[in-house]
Structure formats: C-alpha cells, structure tokens
Design goal:
The chain is of the alpha/beta class. It has 4 helices and 4 strands; from the N terminus they run H-E-E-H-H-E-H-E.
Length: about 120
C-alpha cells in the first residue's frame, strides 16, 4: 500500500459518512458529499443513495418526475477517484432516465472535465 492510499484509507475511517441523502420536499432532494469519495468510502453508500433515489422517484407522478431535481453538493469533497466519478454518473443517468434534473454544485474544477 502506498503512502497516499494509506492516507486515503485513514481519512475514510475517520469520516465514514461520505454521502448523505436528504429529501427537501416531494420533488427536490439533495446529496451532500464529504471527504474522500473513493472505492473504499463508497462501499455500501452507493447502494443506499441509489435505493433512496429510486424510492423517491417511484413515488412521483410522471409529471412530477419531469420536475424532480436532485442536487449533489460536492463542495466538501477532498478527493474523488474513478469510483466517485462512476457513482455521480450513475445517479445522474437514473435521474435523466425519468426526465428529472441533476446538478452538481461546488465540485473542484479539476474534476469537472471528468463528469
């Protein structure tokens, strides 16, 4: 294990909640990403967020689905690897599939070209 991998693993252990889902109202939800978003920190979180998203979208009428808005607040992300990018893209695609809106705010500009 390299030094950078050890630091990432250590940081992840001290901050286990890398993503937190909250439903603002019937058609608006938000996910706050914090710390190191990588293959290690996303373990069960990926499924939890996608399950929350699917449950939320399934309760909406077809018309409400089209105005459903999911915002990812990435302003507190320290590091994002390929797994984190795949996670964001997967959630975005699920949102777009029902015609909803998806927005990432606060993502460091070095990750912008990857999304």
């Amino acid at each position: 294990m390299s030094t950078s991998e050890a630091m990432i693993t250590s940081d992840q252990a001290s901050n286990p909640s890398v993503a937190v889902w909250s439903q603002i109202d019937a058609t608006n939800a938000k996910v706050v990403l914090t710390g190191v978003v990588n293959v290690y920190s996303l373990g069960g979180v990926w499924t939890q967020i996608r399950d929350s998203q699917n449950a939320w979208l399934s309760k909406l009428s077809p018309n409400d689905s089209k105005i459903a808005s999911l915002i990812f607040d990435a302003s507190q992300v320290k590091y994002l690897d390929g797994s984190g990018i795949a996670f964001l893209i997967g959630v975005e695609q699920a949102q777009q599939k029902v015609g909803g809106k998806f927005e990432i705010v606060g993502l460091n500009e070095r990750y912008q070209p990857l999304i």
